[in-house]
Amino acid sequence: MSNINRRDFLKISGSSLIGLTLGGVALRANAQEQISLDDPLVQQFQYVHESAVEGEKCSNCLFIQGEEGAEWRPCPLFQNKLVAANGWCKAWQKKPG
């Protein structure tokens, strides 16, 4: 049976906390790239930067994330790449409420 002293416990806890924090920063950094229309996934979902469907755009879609009002926001459907707030894809779902 292993006995961890207080100093070792604090080192391990501190390292874990730093790792989790840096991991979260890395995930947010990944969502900074705007989506490319050449991407096969984008083509599969028929994504466009400007919606032609009245009342349906990324900014009022269930899946959009990020700061309300931003011109480009992350979307989990596209591996957290940034989509245009005025964009659209065939997976669009109305936000509840």
From TrEMBL:
Q: Which domain of life is it from?
A: Bacteria
> Which residues are in the High potential iron-sulfur proteins family profile domain?
29-97
InterPro entries in UniProt: High_potential_FeS_prot (IPR000170), HIPIP_sf (IPR036369), TAT_signal (IPR006311)
Keywords recorded for this protein, A-Z: 4Fe-4S, Electron transport, Iron, Iron-sulfur, Metal-binding, Transport
Assembly and binders:
Homodimer.
Q: What does this protein do?
A: Specific class of high-redox-potential 4Fe-4S ferredoxins. Functions in anaerobic electron transport in most purple and in some other photosynthetic bacteria and in at least one genus (Paracoccus) of halophilic, denitrifying bacteria.
* Family membership: Belongs to the high-potential iron-sulfur protein (HiPIP) family.
Q: Which protein is depicted?
A: High-potential iron-sulfur protein
